[in-house]
Automatic annotation (TrEMBL):
Annotated pathway: Carbohydrate degradation; 2-deoxy-D-ribose 1-phosphate degradation; D-glyceraldehyde 3-phosphate and acetaldehyde from 2-deoxy-alpha-D-ribose 1-phosphate: step 2/2
NCBIfam families cross-referenced by the UniProt entry: deoC
EC number: 4.1.2.4
Protein's recorded name: Deoxyribose-phosphate aldolase
Catalytic reaction annotation: 2-deoxy-D-ribose 5-phosphate = D-glyceraldehyde 3-phosphate + acetaldehyde
GO cellular component: cytoplasm
InterPro entries in the record: Aldolase_TIM, DeoC, DeoC/FbaB/LacD_aldolase
Pfam family, one: DeoC
UniProt-listed GO biological process terms: carbohydrate catabolic process; deoxyribonucleotide catabolic process
Sequence segments annotated as region (Disordered): 1-44
Amino acid sequence: MEAKRTLPKSARGAGVTSIVDGRGPQLAPAPVDPAAGNGHADDHVARNPGTALDLDVVRALRVNRSAVERRAATLPARRTVKKEWQAAWLLRAITVIDLTTLSGDDTPGNVRRLCAKARQPVRPELLESLGVAHLGLKTGAVCVYHAYVATAVEALRGSGIPVAAVSTGFPAGLSPLRERLAEIRASVADGATEIDTVITRAHVLRGEWEALYDEVKAMREACGDAHLKVILATGELATLTNVARASEVAMQAGADFIKTSTGKEGTNATLPYALVMCRGIRAYQERTGHLVGFKPAGGIRAAKGVLEFMYVMKEELGDRWLKPDLFRVGASALLTDIERQLEHFVTGRYSAAHRHPMV
Ligand SMILES: O=C[C@H](O)COP(=O)(O)O
């Protein structure tokens, strides 16, 4: 009979509470113990209250594109995780996925199936083989259009999985501000506890930082207790300096997370955008003491790809930013590849993607 592989004890283990720095060529395992931060309710940082708009800080930001691109190009080669450590990191990745469906042909049935997948992201027999069936692995959130918030809330009841809504005239965000704010309030009223909003890109392209600050601040107010993820649509902001400045303004205005993309831009999440935004988060924390989360989203479909974003988090912000309250990955199809990789780890064989349907 074929021997199945499992995770090493240290990657499974109760009591593993942080990702430990690897001294050798490999990273140490990511913790996959719920006590190490798989939970949602019990592991939240204090919210970023924002600050007054500080234009001196915003205007002083400049990004050297070629330096950032060089760093982004070397990062995946310098950091790799293999075999059982990779399986452990992929299990960790599942806990930060905002499992997303944002299609014109979404239906209540699709959304319910996606929610079932969020509750049980990996087939039970695979989790058994990996020795982690007891962990109650689930995704970070389910992310849908406002129209499906109530459906998702109902389907996820009792699971502890939050529902995130893309509100504010997603993806272009060009409807009148009062309508965008009303949409946020409606999503919160329907039970969304996380709101992903888009910004007016023209404010960034024209350097209208006060207008951007006021817009994000109004969105934060409309969210109430719901957490605000501000989508910058980085692929439409023209320069990395604009990405850095827009990140800073969004954080000053009270963003709980800054997020790269809607998934609908020509260029979505990339490592250079992630580097610039994570460095902005670090500088903001050093200056104000407030912690802001990061969410790369759009076009992240391969297990290898999500690991690269995790390396950025670990290198630029540290282990604290690898938990769901400060790190999410917005993705509609990534889970399929992660499950395939886990199956390969356990059985030595790849299965067809259609054996891991999302909906
Ligand atoms: O926020 C999430 C994105 O819209 C998902 O994009 P994706 O379909 O390319 O994974």
